[in-house]
Amino acid sequence: MTNPLIPALDSDDREEVLRWAEALASEAGLLKVGLQAFVAHGPSLITEVAKLAPVFADLKLHDIPNTVAGAARVAAGLGASMVTVHASGGAAMVRAAAQSAPDVDVLAVTVLTSLAADDIQAVGQQPAERQVPQLAALAVEAGAAGIVCSAGEIEAVRAAVGPEPLIVVPGIRPAGAAADDQARTATPAAAMARGASHIVVGRPITQAADPVAAARSITASLRR
Questions:
Q1: Residue range 189-208, pLDDT digits in tens
Q2: Which domains does the chain have, with CATH numbers?
Q3: What is the pTM of this model?
């Protein structure tokens, strides 16, 4: 099995991001460069990290189709292997991203894992169990290679999109780890057992005393 682990290199300290990347490149399937690191250090950081391992550029693009198409194309040129867009941007936006970056896996974010049921209702969305598969089906039909959702929606997403699309699951917390600002969480093994193709783990790895050991412990838990 391809290593499903994606450590999240969430820092605005460039040296820290690159130190994590060098240490974790051999322990992961991809390395996540998200908004914090990207805004702090710009496009060149994706290129630097991509020299060490495939990059999951978690930029959550959400704008008019032409703008998102251009941004996805640029991310691909920087060396990203995956890039995220918001499914709620609509089918035309997702399609534009997928068509402009055909060699990259465009992943559609459905409902953020930081949102609990009350938060989802407050922003006028359907409950996650309905909203997530609806957005997933829309995005995959528009050309997305996969979906980003919480572990709790994996089965519903699979039913909506079939067995082929990627399902990348953030909000992953090893047993006993703090939830931090994540509301809809699961352990690594639980997410994979439900059908995730990849799991994103941030602070439980990067804030550990030994990030490499923490990453290895997570991948070992998937083999039990």
A1: 999 999 999 999 999 999 99
A2: 5-221 (3.20.20.70)
A3: 0.91
